[in-house]
Structures are given as C-alpha cells and as structure tokens.
C-alpha cells in the first residue's frame, strides 16, 4: 500500500518537467544525506572509524599544501581550497548536517506552530488572543536577526543554531495552522466527534492534525530549502559549526577572500545551495499539485 | 430511572438564543453589530420513541434548535432538561455526550476524509473497553442496519458517494445506542431515488430499536413520511405543533397552509399561491411585539400588530395565531 | 407551431472519456415549457450549457451534433453570431442569481442595459424616459409592489428570490424567444420557489416565450411544464407530455423516480425506491439503467436501446420494442 502510493506519487511528479527536476534534486540531496549520515555515525559504532570518508573522493579534512588552490578538474571536481582540501568532498561531507537541520527545524516549527496554532484556532477567544499575540511578537523581528541574537547570546554550536532557527521558524507555522483550524472547525465531523464525547484535545488530535498537515505539507517542503538558505547565511556569518567542520555557508565566506582569482571556492558551494533551494521549491510545487489532485 | 413512553426524554423550556452579526472587531472584541434572534421562547418536548419533525424554511431557527438539543451550544435563557436533569456546560459532557447524536446535511464534511469507514463508525465507542473484535462486531451490525456489508470496513470515506456517506453517518450515530438522534436536513442533498432508500432505512432501524428521532427538514413530503409529531417554525417561533396526520393534512396556521400549498407535489398545480411579494419580510431583527407572519398573511387583523400571538391550544394541536384564540 | 430549438445528435464528453451527453435529440416549440429532469450525473447541466452556448468555453469539452436556435447552429456559430443571439435570442437564468448579477451595478442599471440592448438590436431608438418606463413595467410584471425603491438597490441588498425575479424582469426586457432556466429555484425556500415558478409560468405564457426548465425535481417539473424529458447517464430515457408521463410513466426509471417521492406517511408502508446507485462513468454495454432496473432482461445489455415511439411518446426501453442504437452513434 505505502509502496504503491509512493510509486504513484513519483510517477505523478515525473509528469511535469519542473516537479521532476525538483524531485530528482531532493532525492539526490536526501538520499546522499542518509547514506553518508549512516556511514558516518553508524560506522564508528561498528568498528569502522573512517566509514564516513568511504564514499568521498578525498578526506575532507586532510591538508595537502602541494595541491592548494587547484582549479576544478576531473580529479578535483570543485577544485581545492588554500589548504589543499578537496572542496567537492567537503561539500558532500556537509550535506547530511544541512539535511538534518532542515528537517529538524521544519519539523520543530510544525510541532510548536501546530500546538500553538491549532489550539488558538480551535479554542478561539482568549486562547486565540494570547497565542497569536505571542506569535506576532516573534514575527515582528526579522528571522535572521533574531536567530543571530539568540545564537550570539547562548553560544555558538550546531545545537544552538538549530534551536535558534526553530525559535524563529515556528510563528509562520502557527499562523498557517490557525487558519487551517478555523477551516476545519466548521466541518461537521468535528461536531460529530464532540457529540460522541471526545474531549477537546482528543478532537484536535484525531481530527485536526491530519487535514491541517495535508494542507501545510507543500509549504513545508518548500520551506526545507528556506531553512538551508538561512542556516547557510548563519554559517556564512560564522554562526554555524566551528571549523574545521565543512559548511556550505562558511565555505562561501572563506572563499570570498580568494575571489575572483580562485572563484570556484566561493561560487561552487554557493551553486549547491541555490540548487537545493530551487529543488525544494520545485518539489514543493509538485507536492501541492499532487495533494490538490488527490 | 425508567422512562415511560409518556415521559418526555428531553424538554426545551422557554429557550431563547440570539447571535450577533456584523460589527467591528478590534483586538478580538466585537463592537456594535446586529443582534439576530434565532429562537424566541421556544418550548418543546421530545417523547421516547417518537419522530418529531421540525418543519421550516431557511432562517426559521431549526438548526439552532438542533444545536440546543444536542448541547453543541447553550441557550441564552431557558433550560434544557435531558432525562430530568438540566443540561449545563459543566455536565453536558458526562450527561449527554454519546447519548444524543446528530446526522448532518452535508455528507462531504460530516465524515473525516482521512478516516476509514471502521474508524468513523467506531469513534463513538472510543471510551468503551470492548476488545477490537467486539468493536468490529458492533460496527458490522451497525453497517448491516444501514444496508452496507463488511467490504466497506476498510474503505476510505472520501471515496464513497453522497448516499453511502450518509449511511455511514447514520451507522455512526446509532452505534452508541443513543437516546435521541437529530437529523439536520440529512437527506436533502441526496437524489430522490437515494433519499427514498435512506428514509426507509431510518424508519426500519427506528422500528427495530425504538430510537427517538428529531428530524429537521424543509420538505413537506419528507415531513409527511417521517413524522409522528410535527412542529412548524418560522423565524425562531413555533407557529403550529401537533400530530402529523392532523397538522399536515389540515394545517391551521396561515403559514402552515402556505407551506402546504407551496410544496411541490407530483401531478398537482400550484394553487392559492400569493404572488404577493414578501418584499418586506421580517429578517430576524429583535422582539418586535407583533406576529412575524403579518406581512405575508392574508388573514391579518388589527390585533396581529398589537401583540405577538401565543400558542393557543386547540383539540389536538397548538397554533400561534389569533384566528384560533377562542376555539 | 414554430420550432424554436432543435437539438440533433448532441454528444458531449469531458476530457477523453468522461461522457456527459449521448445522442440527445429533441425539439422545443414556440410557447412551450419543456422540463429536463435528471438526477446528479444525468448530464442535465451540460445540456443547459450547450444550449446557452457556453460549452466551448471549457477547452476540455469535446462535442458533436447540432443545437439550432432560430435557425442558428450555436455549437458551430461564430462569436459574432453568438453575440447577436445571446440575451435577445436565448436568455439564461442560473441557479445562483448572485453570480449572474454584477454586485457593483444597481438593479436599475442592470434592467436599463437589458432594455437598451434589445431595442438596439431591433433598431429602435429609445430615450431614457422610455427605458425607465419599460423597466418599471417589467418590475411590476414580476410583482414588485414598489419598483422605484427596488431600482435603487444593489443585488446584495435583495434576497435570492427577489434577485431571481430581477432575472425574470431582465428576460422580459430582452424579449428572447428561448428562455433557459437551470435549476432556478433550487437554492430558494419552498414558498419563494412557488412564487417564482408561478410567476415564471405566467410570464412565459404572457410574453410568448419558450422555456427550457432544467431541474432535478420531478415534482417541480410536473407542476410547471407541458412536456418532460427524462435524462439518465446522458441519454434521453423518455419524452412525453407531463400528464401522460406522470400518470402512466413508460420507462422503469421514470416510474422509480415518481415512486421515490414521499407521498404517504411511514405508517402506510415504506417508500418504493430504485435500488443501487448511479455510478459515474461506469462501463455498461447497453442500457445504463440496467444495474438498477427491476424489469431488466438479457436483451437490455445487447446494445443501447433506441428511443422508440410508442403511444405518441418516446421511450428508450426494450419493453416497448427491441431496437438498438447503431454502435457508431454511441459515443463514449
């Protein structure tokens, strides 16, 4: 059942060239993230300490000063940086973290925003006022600035970066979920459920979450790209993972000092970011059409 | 406590309810806005095992009555007595939930589109400690009562037709063995040929389990088929109430008569239709203190403008019209 | 009697395979009220759109056949010809008057425009005074007791029934030969419906128009129409005068439809109903009503029965003679 739905979904996505491109990019992105992630974090547990480097052309951390600042070629697809590290390997190595952050931030935004928005929309009145004014408070600050302030205050690490992104990410979802709740509240099946004796929380859990998620799904897929973009900006500004861990954003910022002579260092990781964002947007559009057609 | 057939299972005592429409919203508070009276001092009794039909047009307040009976909303004033205890916002969950069920007009939105038929129908049993097998058994019995077989159990409700959805909604309503089932225009969006099937099912299961129905409709013919007692309402007021054989075959209130004449019947011609325009028909403002049907009434008198007619008792029925004041 | 409308071999499909109408043939004469009766999926609304010349707006629709109104084949007419015939040749009243009337245009402007168009096409010069007079007469004809007040209003200030009467007043001013009403009273209360229908009948007879009345409600059709056409799954099942069709329906579907309307109390027994349900686009070789029919035989699915004449009426059922449509005409 699940398999055939997935297959039908993929077939549908392939019908439109744009959503097909988006789907391919997303499959490559997440597929790679999962494979590399498993190797990197499960390998050491099984006794293969270097499993994370297995599929990479070069070790992303090893210096090779004789090969520094080599322009892109077949042996170094994206060229190398000033320390002679292979940029392609570093890009590949950074992807699992980006993928994880995007999923965690969007997921966290959906959970927090869902709770706040659904209760606001369903209970209405005072709950609505309190929830939505708090939401407005968060929305009033530019997301990036707020995330920077939070991270600057609590410290610099990947965990804090993720937390600060969730903090700025949920208000949009709260608004989306609230409008969904207002729509679903008028559905007769909600009245039926109340008449059957379900408590309010049970009604929300059983009858609001699925329909609301269904509508919000396409926005959430597009949003994956936005998270990656914002996270890359944070790391560009030096608020991502501390070096020497590779990061798309920090690679761009490091490469900028060698621009334009050694253009590949800044440009190619940037292109990867753009590809992922565009891929997510195209994929999200496809998902929306698919859900609408259903 | 055992209820006799003669005891009302539910009683509405002087229920009034109004809504505020329009107005400006500021910081979540509504200012101004027009008060619209949905129900004005309505009293009703629902007897065990009977079908009470509420017959009325749009704006009559019949859906508001349904909301009062089911406890989905509470009245502004007056009281609702369910099995001899007063229904309040505190006790309605323990007292009435699961015991008063409702079937809605809009089949498309009355079932959660992400549920299977089994999940839908079994939801009212969520509190019971039945094993899954027992629940399946109960669901199957309910489905059988509405003419559906076990092949429907795992089907998704969104792939069903309107008539099938309405049957599922009925199965769901009867599974918890409720004291009252309220049908709010439950068959009016169905094709006639499907409506006939559903109406038959309703009558059959009522005979089988002695259910109490409150059946809300605008359709005179459907009312005639379903009703034991009928209550004709107009802009939140009861105009005529009594046994259906008497009221529907020989209506007394001028509005009831108009309703009968205006109802399409096969092979009949429209007769006695006032082509007079209801241009100035009252649109539920507030208490006006006169008969609300005055503008459209052909028997109107001076008196009708001075006060609102109360329900006058006739032999078998009650009529809210001064024509029957001294009879 | 002058023939106003002739529909010939009309086939309509949506997309590649969703059938809507199959081989529809009928005539409508001057002064006549013909009811098209069908339940959901019967194709009655598609028929309305075809006659209102609105089918071609939907790019996915495929159609063949002819719809002749006053000698113009509107299915294949040019935009210019259609422009000349819309309003003054065919006037359409839809279910929801709020969508037909412009919310930003007053009732007076709606009606004046209608009258101006019709006088323009008849090459009659009119001055504002004449227009106003005509408009007020029309409003009086549709039973507005105070036309001057109504003129100043906007559609949203009037009720559904009043707006539908404004539509009828517009029809009076445009003087079309053919009036098409697609479920005009379905959204109205029964008392308002009775008023609008009584009025519609009176106006059609007085102004000497013809009316094609599309409805799902056989009872309503029986009270208004002279002739009835029963549609099922895009096929005409029965055509006959109202009196005969109601008192002695020929087709099992018509019989079932009449019996399904509640008439007695439940104490007098259950309703007679049509078993099963209509399944949209179901593949049936032969009579589409076969799965639900009580008097079905093996012959029913050997082909689609022809619409045959019997007792001066037309019916598509093999009970009255085993004849089939040629297979090439049974478009998918």
Query: What is the CATH C-level name of the domain at 8-99 and 178-250 in chain B?
Result: Alpha Beta
How many E strands of chain C?
12
Q: Any idea of the CATH topology of the domain at 8-99 and 178-250 in chain B?
A: Rossmann fold
Count of DSSP E strands of chain B? 14
Give structural notes.
The complex is a heterotrimer of chains A (294), B (327) and C (332). Chain A has helices at 2-15, 17-42, 87-123, 125-139, 143-154, 158-185, 188-195, 200-236, 248-256, 263-293. Chain A is mainly α and 294 residues long. Chain A has one domain (15-38, 79-293): MetI-like fold, CATH 1.10.3720. Chain A is globular, with a radius of gyration of 22 Å. The two termini of chain A are 16 Å apart. By secondary structure, chain B is an alpha/beta fold. Chain B has a domain at 8-99 and 178-250: Rossmann fold (3-Layer(aba) Sandwich), CATH 3.40.50.300. In chain B, 29% of the residues lie in helices and 24% in strands. Chain C has 2 domains: 3-232, 3-Layer(aba) Sandwich (Rossmann fold), CATH 3.40.50.300; 249-329, no CATH class. With 332 residues, chain C is of the alpha/beta class. Chain C is 33% helix and 22% strand. Chain C has helices spanning 44-51, 79-85, 97-100, 107-121, 128-141, 147-151, 160-174, 190-207, 218-224, 242-247, 252-260, and strands at 3-14, 18-29, 33-37, 61-69, 72-73, 90-93, 178-182, 210-215, 227-232, 235-241, 308-310, 313-315. Chain C contains 11 helices and 12 strands. Chains in contact: A-B, B-C. At the B-C interface, helix 7, helix 8 and helix 10 of B face helix 7, helix 8, helix 9, helix 10 and helix 11 of C.
């Amino acid at each position: 059942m699940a398999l055939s739905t997935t297959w039908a979904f993929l077939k549908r996505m392939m019908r439109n060239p744009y959503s097909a491109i988006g789907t391919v990019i997303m499959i490559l992105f997440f597929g790679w993230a999962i494979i590399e992630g498993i190797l990197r974090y499960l390998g050491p547990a099984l006794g293969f300490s270097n499993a994370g480097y297995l599929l990479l052309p070069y070790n992303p951390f090893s210096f090779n000063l004789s090969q520094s600042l080599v322009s892109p070629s077949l042996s170094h697809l994206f060229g190398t940086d000033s320390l002679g590290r292979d940029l392609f390997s570093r890009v590949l190595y950074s992807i699992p973290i980006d993928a994880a952050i995007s999923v965690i931030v969007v997921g966290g935004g959906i959970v927090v925003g869902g709770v706040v928005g659904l209760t606001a929309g369903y209970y209405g009145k005072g709950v609505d006022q309190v929830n939505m004014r708090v939401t407005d408070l968060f929305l009033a600050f530019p997301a990036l600035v707020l995330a920077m302030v939070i991270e600057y205050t609590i410290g610099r690490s990947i965990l804090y970066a993720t937390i600060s992104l969730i903090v700025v990410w949920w208000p949009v979802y709260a608004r989306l979920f609230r409008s969904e709740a207002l729509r679903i509240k008028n559905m007769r099946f909600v009245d039926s459920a109340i008449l059957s004796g379900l408590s309010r929380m049970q009604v929300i859990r059983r009858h609001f979450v699925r329909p609301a998620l269904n509508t919000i799904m396409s926005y959430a897929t597009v949003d994956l790209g936005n998270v990656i973009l914002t996270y890359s900006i944070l790391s560009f500004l030096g608020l991502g993972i501390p070096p020497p861990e590779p990061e798309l954003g920090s690679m761009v910022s490091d490469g900028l000092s060698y621009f334009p002579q050694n253009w590949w260092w800044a440009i190619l990781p940037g292109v990867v970011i753009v590809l992922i964002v565009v891929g997510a947007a195209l994929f999200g559009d496809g998902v929306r059409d698919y859900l609408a057609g259903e | 406590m055992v209820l006799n057939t003669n005891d009302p299972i539910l009683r509405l005592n002087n229920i009034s309810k109004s809504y505020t429409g329009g107005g400006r919203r500021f910081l979540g508070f509504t200012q101004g806005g027009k008060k619209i009276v949905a129900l004005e001092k309505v009293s009703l009794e629902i007897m065990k095992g009977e079908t009470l039909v509420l017959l009325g047009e749009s704006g009559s307040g019949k859906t508001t009555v349904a909301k009062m009976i089911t406890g989905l909303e509470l009245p502004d004033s007056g009281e609702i007595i369910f099995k001899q205890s007063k229904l309040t916002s505190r006790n309605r969950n323990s007292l009435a939930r699961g015991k008063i069920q409702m079937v809605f007009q809009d089949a498309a939105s009355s079932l959660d589109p992400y549920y299977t038929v089994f999940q839908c129908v079994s939801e009212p049993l969520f509190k019971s400690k039945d094993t899954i097998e027992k629940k399946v058994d109960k669901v199957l019995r309910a489905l059988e009562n509405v003419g559906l077989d076990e092949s429907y159990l795992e089907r998704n409700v969104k792939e069903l037709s309107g008539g099938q959805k309405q049957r599922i909604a009925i199965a769901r309503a009867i599974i918890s063995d409720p004291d009252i089932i309220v049908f709010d225009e439950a068959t009016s969006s169905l094709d006639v040929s499907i409506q006939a099937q559903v109406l038959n099912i309703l009558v059959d299961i009522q005979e089988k389990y002695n259910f109490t129905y409150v059946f809300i409709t605008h359709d005179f013919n459907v009312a005639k088929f379903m009703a034991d007692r009928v209550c004709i309402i107009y802009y939140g007021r009861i105009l005529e109430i009594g046994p259906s054989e008497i009221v529907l075959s020989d209506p007394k209130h001028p509005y009831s008569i108009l309703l009968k004449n205006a109802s399409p019947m096969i092979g009949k011609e429209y007769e006695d239709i006032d082509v007079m325009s209801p241009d100035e028909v009252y649109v539920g403002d507030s208490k006006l203190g006169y008969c609300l049907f005055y503008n459209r009434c052909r028997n109107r008198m001076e008196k009708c403008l001075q006060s609102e007619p109360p329900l006058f008792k006739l032999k078998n029925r009650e009529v809210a019209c001064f024509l029957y004041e001294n009879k | 009697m002058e023939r106003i409308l002739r529909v010939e071999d009309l086939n309509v499909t949506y997309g590649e395979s969703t059938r809507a109408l199959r081989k529809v043939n009928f005539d409508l004469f001057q002064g006549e009220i013909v009811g098209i009766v069908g339940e959901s999926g019967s194709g009655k609304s598609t028929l309305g759109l075809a006659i209102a010349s609105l089918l071609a707006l939907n790019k996915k629709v495929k159609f063949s056949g002819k719809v002749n109104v006053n000698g113009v084949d509107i299915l294949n007419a040019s935009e210019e010809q259609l422009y000349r015939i819309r309003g003054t040749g065919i006037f359409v009243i839809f279910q929801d008057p709020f969508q037909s009337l412009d919310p930003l245009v007053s009732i007076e402007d709606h009606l004046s425009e209608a009258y101006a168009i019709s006088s323009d096409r008849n090459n009659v010069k009119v001055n504002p005074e004449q227009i106003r007079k005509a408009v007020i007469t029309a409003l009086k004809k549709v039973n507005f007791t105070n036309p001057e007040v109504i003129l100043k209003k906007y559609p949203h200030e009037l009720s559904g029934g009043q707006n539908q009467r404004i539509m009828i007043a517009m029809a009076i001013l445009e003087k079309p030969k053919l009036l098409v009403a697609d479920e005009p009273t379905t959204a109205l209360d029964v008392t308002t419906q009775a008023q609008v229908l009584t009025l519609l009948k009176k106006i059609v007879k007085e102004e000497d128009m013809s009316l094609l009345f599309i409805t799902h409600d056989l009872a309503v059709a029986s009270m208004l129409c002279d002739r009835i056409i029963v549609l099922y799954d895009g096929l005409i099942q029965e055509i006959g005068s109202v009196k005969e069709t109601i008192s002695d329906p020929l087709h099992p579907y018509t019989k079932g439809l009449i019996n399904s309307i509640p008439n007695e109390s439940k104490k007098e027994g259950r309703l007679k109903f049509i078993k099963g349900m209509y399944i949209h686009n179901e593949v049936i070789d032969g009579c589409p009503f076969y799965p639900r029919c009580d008097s079905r035989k093996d012959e029913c699915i050997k082909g689609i029965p022809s619409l045959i004449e019997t007792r001066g009426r037309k019916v598509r059922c093999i009970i009255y003679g085993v004849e089939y449509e040629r297979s090439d005409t049974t478009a998918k």
